[in-house]
Specification:
194 residues, two-stranded antiparallel sheet
């Protein structure tokens, strides 16, 4: 029969082993008076490692973050107003944009419905067609310009509009999609091919 090593006993043994290796936090002179002429022992180098539960602070260069997706000037302007962001998965209806990211910038220290949304993600041709068809079936409007497709919410129902009267807008390119809370806001999404 195999003896099982209880988890708690293993954790205690590991903690005691680490404690034995670490030594006291303040040096204690345990040298007998007869050996005081010996040179002191060389101190051990201490290596500090990041806790395992702390995520890396840098994202891979091939994936956007809320601070790299939009222009640097926009990030600085939003932060100067005291705004921060919340990250969300990028979805268009039922279509998950795998590898994409949606960011909601706002002043989360106060209750308000004022904020700005930006998103970008890679998208397959099939998912692009599905997402566009879903939006159009919900009353969104389709237009094309310079080889790109724009799907914009009906201006009659838009909460926020840009100078041209456009509200939330998706821009579909070849293998990617981006989103902003206004069509002009798409110019600020500075990630990937435009």
């Amino acid at each position: 029969m195999k003896t099982r090593f209880p988890l708690a006993a293993g954790a205690l043994l590991a903690a005691l082993s680490l404690a034995a290796c670490s030594g006291p936090s303040t040096p204690v002179d345990k040298t007998p008076a007869s050996t005081a002429s010996k040179p002191p022992a060389t101190p051990k180098a201490e290596v500090e490692t990041a806790p395992a539960d702390k995520p890396a602070t840098t994202a891979p260069a091939d994936r956007p973050t809320c601070e790299t997706m939009i222009t640097k000037g926009t990030v600085e302007a939003l932060k100067s107003q005291g705004w921060t962001f919340e990250e969300r998965e990028f979805r268009i209806g039922d279509v998950l944009v795998d590898g994409g990211l949606e960011c909601m910038w706002a002043d989360y220290s106060t209750a308000s419905d004022h904020g700005q949304m930006y998103a970008w993600g890679p998208i397959s041709a099939e998912n692009s067609r599905t997402a566009q068809a879903s939006l159009i079936s919900e009353g969104w409007l389709r237009s094309t310009s310079n080889g790109k497709t724009y799907i914009t919410e009906d201006p009659d129902y838009a909460i926020a509009k840009d100078d041209d009267g456009f509200g939330m807008t998706y821009e579909f390119g070849d293998g990617w999609v981006r989103f902003a809370d206004t069509k002009q806001g798409l110019l600020l999404v500075d990630w990937g091919e435009k």
